[in-house]
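STRUCTURE REQUEST FORM
Protein name: ABC transporter substrate-binding protein
Source organism: Szabonella alba
Requested output: structure tokens
Priority: standard
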Amino acid sequence: MRINRRQTLGLLGATTGSLILPRGLRAQGTRREITIAVQKITNNGTLDIWNEQSNVGERVFFPNLWEGLILRDWMGNQGPLPGLATEWKRLDDMTIELKLREGVRFHNGDEMTAEDVVFSFSDERLFAGTAPVGGATLYEENFKPQTAKELPAAVPGIARRMWPALRGVEAVDRYTVRLHNATPDVTLEGRLYAHGSQIASKRAWDEAATYAEWAAKPVTTGAYRVEDFRPDVSLTLVAHDDYWGGRPPLARIRFVEVPEVASRVNGLISGEYDFACDLPPDQIATVSGTPGLEVQSSTIWNHRLSVFNKQNDHLADPLVRRALTHSIDRQMIVDAMWGGETVVPAGLQFDSFAASDMFIEGWSVPEYNPELARDLVKQSGYKGDAIPYRLLNNYYTNQTPTAQILVEMWNQVGLNVEIQMMENWAQIHDPEGVRGVYDWSASNTINDPITPMVVQFGPNGEAQQKRNFWNDEVNQLSVVLETSTDRAARKKAFARMLEICEREDPAYQVLHQNAVFTGMKSELNWKAAPAFAMDFRAANWNA
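Status: completed
Returned output:
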């Protein structure tokens, strides 16, 4: 059985006989409850979209819980749709005016107004007094919270990562707002539907005693609200019947954390779970061959990467990092680990960049050339000392076996890379000890090279904020991408950034485009989005 690598599939298996529904699936009135087994719910124990910038966060947040002024077309081309704003227009290169949808109700019953939008982009909620100037890196140690209500140290830097030059939001009237930027920015509309720019209730924030209390149960406008959140265990969302988009079709959605693939698959087959996420390709036949089950798949706007730490004594030499990039047979990994169901992309770029003429034609990942890699190792003078590879146990699909392949390929060219198993992302990024290589992924959330190149590797990208990578020219070019309205100049800057980050001073190596495989009960008649997000609004539920 072959999975279409680019389009979400319909049914893969026919249901045979009668299906006995487990308790969680039985109709409750006209609505059901469902249980979804996921590898991870959140990484940091909060439901704050600014604090949880991750692929696992995307799955539980969007589009069911958090919503923005502009929405992403999750089930379509991932482009913009009217959301909490019904219309928007550019007043100039630095200003956007938006008309808010009237009658939108938060989960606490309040109507959303311009006051909530202003708050959602305020210093108190995001920026902590940081200046709207791009190009300077913000580090967590400069933002230690002094009270339990202040923002976590990481949030201001994340906010300036996504909004480097936002001065603020003005309430023109109850249902009209204006976003004022300090510089021109052709991506402002995209930033409004990216991961982070969603609207929260100001009153709910004001009433929360602590940030942790608020972040465990944020009050938003989505089709489902938080009923119960147990970090590292489960998240239960319940229908928000005053949802502006119509009555939600499900009574409850329960995400349960099941780290082991076999347990997710067995629970799906037994009926304990209705969905099992993050299946590796070698489990497709098992699931799709079970009566009443199917697997849906698509490649998504996300690439798997290895990231290098320049503080490492050996990786400080770009020759060693270049050797790492030329040692890897990416196509072999795609064929062996993914059954050919994904692709090796043209570096850190996405096909969708072509729509705005920002795709760099002719660019490719570094060639697989073991002889060149050995020569680079020899030129560097590297003597075989251990380079640590901090690894999580299958946070990403096929992560551990892929890491074992990478290490073997590196060893074959004389690079002594040693796996160090870690339990969580805090351990991956812990500055104590020696860092070397770690796994990551990079997403296109704005349909522009701003994401992921600048957002992840620019001056306030996590790679620089965590002191894994730095490059003055990359930071200067980031400002060009962020502020220039000249398409040719932006494209030239992006092309140069690819040269630096993938050839001259490697920050990372791209492995392959990511793909999502979701096992589910066929009778639910639900479709997977070409994303980590799972849409359970009325238009995508027909059971």
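Reviewer notes: The longest strand covers residues 293-308. The radius of gyration is 23 Å.
Form closed.
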